[in-house]
Design a protein that fits this description.
This protein is an alpha/beta fold and about 400 residues long. Helix content is about 40%, strand content about 15%.
């Protein structure tokens, strides 16, 4: 492959149909349609119906957790969890290397967001920097299991216990992953999952909060339904919102959950294929050191000559819709740029990270072609950068 063959310089793209990072995984349409048809025929479309109950029970069994509270989406799950556990206006420590929904769920409710740095290898919260950020105003620690890699759970738990504050986990990436032979979903005060369409297990839109605390589960169930106590629509115990998952979304989730093992096996196969081919001193394929769902294939561009931004442009021209999670990190977004945070590892990781397509819709042959493009880029990065600069100057 020469640069004359790269689509960014005018050649035909390598793929006619775009390859996506998170194309939705769905079981056979007949199974989904049968479940949805049953819901529509029942006329019970929302309001804590039987499909929501079944999905919650199935998730509890899958994760071996005591309580699951299905919600309309992961962002609302975070809002409920924090509202149930943290005093109004308190500081909450979070990573800046995460999807913007994580800090937004806090800022939306007038909590003070305090950004902490991450570990260079794992990309999850650095407990030492978290410890340095704790003050008398700290109301909670909110860790994020990025790429499905569990946070440093034991050190963070110790910190939370020492300071008497709750520990919450954003587990949007981590459904069906494990830490110390226990499923994510069993740690901290509670954990919040996203079942958005781009997640390897999805309900189209949706999420869930899991906990082993019965009292907290009761509070969360009331809060997701306007604050009503149980089925008593005349008794509101406290302030709540409408965060209920619909029966249609739950029905799709029930169908998809049956195939979760197949999804994970395909993701793992894809991950291993990428690792086999992407061998280069300028590339590092992120390694998940736990039982993982492998729903993200993450590469880091190492060295001065290579650029994750340029590689993204090269791949997108080939119809490979790679993504620059999470660049820029949250602290550099306009809504959080009013305060300066020193997060050197976050900046370094965000600068060099790129996520490649995987999932049930991506074949090994397609992965091999993507790898060829990536390897060609890192071998000819300087030449490609020069040519792109010339085109910008004379275009």
């Amino acid at each position: 492959m020469g640069d004359r063959e790269l689509a960014i310089f005018g050649a035909e793209p390598a793929f006619k149909v775009p390859l996506c990072v998170g194309k939705p995984n769905l079981v056979s349409l007949p199974k989904i349609l049968a479940n949805v048809t049953h819901v529509l025929e029942s006329r019970w479309l929302t309001n804590d119906g039987p499909c929501v109950h079944k999905l919650e029970q199935d998730i509890c069994r899958r994760l071996n957790v005591a309580h699951c509270i299905a919600v309309a989406n992961g962002t609302l799950g975070l809002e409920l969890a924090v509202r149930a556990l943290v005093s109004e206006g308190a500081e909450i420590i979070v990573p800046s290397f995460t999807f913007i929904a994580t800090p937004n769920a806090l800022r939306w409710q007038q909590y003070k967001v305090v950004f902490a740095d991450i570990d260079l290898i794992t990309h999850v919260l650095d407990p030492e920097d978290v410890a340095a950020k704790i003050t008398e105003r700290t109301g909670a620690i909110l860790g994020v299991h990025v790429w499905g890699t569990p946070c440093a759970i034991e050190p963070l738990t110790d910190l939370a216990c020492k300071h008497g504050i709750p520990l919450i986990f954003d587990a949007a990436h981590a459904f069906c992953t494990e830490y110390d032979w226990r499923s994510i979903g069993n740690f901290g005060a509670c954990e919040v999952f996203s079942f958005h369409a781009t997640k390897f297990f999805n309900t189209v839109e949706g999420g869930a909060i899991t906990t082993n605390d019965a009292e907290l589960a009761k509070d969360l169930r009331e809060m997701r339904n306007f604050g009503f106590v149980g089925d008593n629509s005349h008794n509101v115990a406290g302030i709540g919102i409408n965060a209920k998952m619909s029966e249609v979304h739950a029905a799709i989730g029930i169908a998809n959950l049956v195939s979760v093992t197949d999804f994970i096996q395909q993701n793992t196969r894809n991950y291993l294929e990428y690792r086999k081919f992407l061998q280069h001193e300028s590339l590092h394929v992120y390694n998940v050191n736990s039982i993982s769902n492998h729903q993200y294939v993450v590469v880091e561009l190492i060295g001065d000559d290579v650029s994750a931004d340029v590689l993204e442009r090269v791949l997108r021209a080939e119809n490979v819709l790679a993504r620059r999670y999470f660049s820029p990190p949250c602290r550099l977004m306009d809504s959080y740029s009013d305060e300066y945070w020193v997060l050197p590892v976050t900046e370094q990781v965000a600068k060099r990270t790129l996520v490649l397509p995987t999932g049930m819709s991506v074949s090994l042959k397609e992965i091999d072609i993507v790898c060829q493009i990536v390897l060609y880029y890192v071998e000819h990065a300087a030449e490609i950068a020069t040519k792109l600069a010339e085109e910008n100057n004379y275009g």
